[in-house]
Structures are given as structure tokens and as C-alpha cells.
Specification:
Length: 346
């Protein structure tokens, strides 16, 4: 039996169990999951991959998490270096607000962006993607959006737990305000990075610090409490996060270190969204966090925030970060850059 059919059969069995406990639960039959023909060949290759066999395995000691972190950083750094070379982007380490960051500069900075600055908060479920690996999304934005970007290499567990990452993002934002008008800057990130960007808005607002002119929120980890339809509908369909039993949620709870995950600084969908900057949100139809993205978009709109949603066919979680040669990747970042251009002052 093909792997995805086996996964679907497992979900069917689980659905039957749930159905016996709750008459409102629906049983979904096992069925093939074809790869769409109207997406790029690069995205087709990503879509066709099975979920990682070890998706539900994670470390159970601080040493184990640190080893996983080092391995991820080494792999991600190779990816970032190769990507920067292909896309003619320079990456320079520096320090802002006492936090290690990377200054990411395209070879073709747009004239309209000479006084603008973007701050990027990296993905990685709060525990992965640090070091030079943190620059991947910044490199893509610099190359396709023609902006200068600061990639924030925030602290992560087991070296530092909640709210250390948030503190670092806010510290860099406050430092950036010394040289730039808030209206000239935007903050963006994917997954945990998007959640941290939102939490930074809450913290800055509470401290009376000006907010940026725009936000970019990619597949945000906006709700760690498990609420959201796509946690069920896209379970075993998303071949990156795979399911709530996968790596990312335990990693986020490791970062939370016993703190209530319903706190808006960890699940920002429960925060006061009124008065936040205009925001563009990105997801895919197979993303486990599609509902988190859609629900956040609706709550932003209901709070009076100018919010735009873009959803890409067949993409699992944040697959636009996986391949810089895919036309969908370019489109994601060109859309975000265009949104920023409309909302940032020059």
C-alpha cells in the first residue's frame, strides 16, 4: 500500500475512534492524494515527497535538543550560503541592540528602498534555524523584493527560553528605530518567526514604542492550543509539519518552558490585534497551519487591520522557503514586497 494511503487509513481508524466519542465527528475514507498538474515542476517535486518517517520523533533531553539544533544550523547554513551566491546577495554579521543579526543586501537594491529597512524573524519552531541559517528568508526577500533586510538570530533553548527570543526581536526593533522612521520599516517572518513578529508588536505597543509600517506573516504559528480545522484536515497531508504529533509543537512547548501556551505572546491570535500595521499573510492549501493563517487573517480584519491573504495551491508548510528556483517562491516574495511598497514611506 502506498505510504500516503497507509497514512490515510490510519487517519480513518482514528476518525472511527473519534466518531464513537463524538457523533459530530465525520469519518473520511482513505483515498489517493494526487499531485496537481497546474503547479511548477519544482513544487510538484516537493508536493510528491512523503512525510519524513521520523516526523514524530523529537529529543527528550536538553542535550538532544542542542544536538538537533547544531545539525539543523549546519545544514541550513550551507543552504543559505549557496542561495546567497546564486541570487547575488551579500550577508554580513553584525550586532544590533546586543543581539546577533545579519545584514542582507541585494546587488540591485531598488532606488525606492534606499532608506527603507526590513527586519526578518526566522522560522524553526523556536528551536531550529539559527546562525547563518536564519538568513534564508531574508535572502529570498532581498533578491526578489530588492530590499535591505536584517535577519535576527534570536536566542533559542536550551540556551535561553521564553521570552528570550521575543526580547531579542524587540531589542533589534528598538535599535533599528535609531536610524529609520518606523514608517520606513516592516517586520516579517514565517511560522514561529511570524508569531514572534506579532508578539513583538504587542510588547512594543505596551511599551509605547512605535510600530512598523507593515507586517509580513507567513504560515504563522498563531495558536499553540490546537484550535483550527486544518490541524485535522491537513494532518498527514502536509509533508513538512505533518501533524500536531510532529516535531514542531513539542519544540514550541520546549521554548515555552511550562508557560501557558494560550498567552498571546505565544499564541498571538488571542491578543488584541486592533491598531496593528497592515499585514500580508501567506499559506498553502496543504499547510497544517492554514487554519491558523486564515483565522488570524479574519481576526485582523475584524479588528480593523488592513490584512491581505495569499494562499498557494498544494503548498505544505512554508515550502516557499525550500527552493529559490520555483516560480511560486518568487511570486510569494514579490507579492509581499509589493505590499510593503504600498504601505512604507520612502
Amino acid at each position: 500500500m502506498p505510504l500516503l494511503s497507509m497514512r490515510a487509513a490510519t487517519l480513518l481508524a482514528l476518525s472511527v475512534c473519534f466518531d464513537s466519542a463524538n457523533a459530530q465527528d465525520r469519518v473520511v475514507p482513505a483515498r489517493p492524494l494526487p499531485t496537481p498538474s497546474d503547479i511548477s515542476s519544482g513544487l510538484q517535486a516537493l508536493v510528491a515527497k512523503p512525510p519524513p518517517a521520523d516526523f514524530s520523533q523529537w529529543p527528550n533531553t536538553s542535550q538532544g535538543w542542542a544536538e538537533r539544533q547544531r545539525s539543523s544550523e549546519a545544514s541550513g547554513t550551507k543552504t543559505a550560503i549557496a542561495m546567497a551566491d546564486r541570487l547575488h546577495v551579500t550577508v554580513t554579521p553584525m550586532v544590533m541592540g546586543g543581539v546577533r543579526v545579519f545584514d542582507v543586501m541585494p546587488s540591485d537594491l531598488a532606488p525606492a528602498n534606499r532608506d527603507r529597512l526590513l527586519l526578518q524573524v526566522h522560522a524553526g519552531c523556536y528551536v531550529l534555524g539559527g546562525g547563518e541559517a536564519s538568513t534564508v528568508e531574508a535572502i529570498l526577500m532581498a533578491a526578489f523584493g530588492h530590499y535591505r533586510v536584517i535577519a535576527i538570530d534570536y536566542r533559542m533553548p536550551p540556551a535561553a527560553y521564553f521570552p528570550a527570543a521575543l526580547d531579542d526581536v524587540v531589542a533589534v526593533w528598538q535599535d533599528a528605530l535609531k536610524a529609520h522612521k518606523p514608517s520606513q520599516m516592516a517586520m516579517f517572518g514565517t511560522s514561529a518567526g511570524a508569531a514572534l513578529a506579532l508578539a513583538a508588536m504587542f510588547r512594543a505597543r505596551d511599551q509605547g514604542v512605535p510600530l512598523p509600517g507593515a507586517l509580513g506573516l507567513g504560515a504563522p504559528m498563531a495558536d499553540l492550543t490546537g484550535v483550527g480545522d486544518s490541524f485535522a484536515t491537513n494532518a498527514m497531508i502536509d509533508n513538512v509539519l505533518v501533524s500536531r504529533e510532529g516535531f514542531c509543537e513539542p519544540a514550541a512547548r520546549f521554548y515555552a518552558n511550562g508557560h501557558d501556551v494560550a498567552d498571546p505572546l505565544l499564541s498571538p491570535i488571542y491578543g488584541n490585534l486592533a491598531g496593528l500595521p497592515p499585514a500580508i499573510l501567506t499559506s498553502g492549501t496543504r499547510d497544517l497551519l492554514l487554519s491558523s493563517t486564515v483565522r488570524l487573517h479574519r481576526k485582523l480584519r475584524q479588528s480593523g487591520v488592513n490584512a491581505q491573504l495569499q494562499v498557494f495551491e498544494a503548498m505544505s508548510h512554508a515550502q516557499y522557503l525550500r527552493d529559490d528556483t520555483m516560480p511560486e517562491t518568487r511570486e510569494v516574495f514579490e507579492e509581499i514586497a509589493s505590499f510593503f511598497d504600498r504601505h512604507l514611506s520612502k
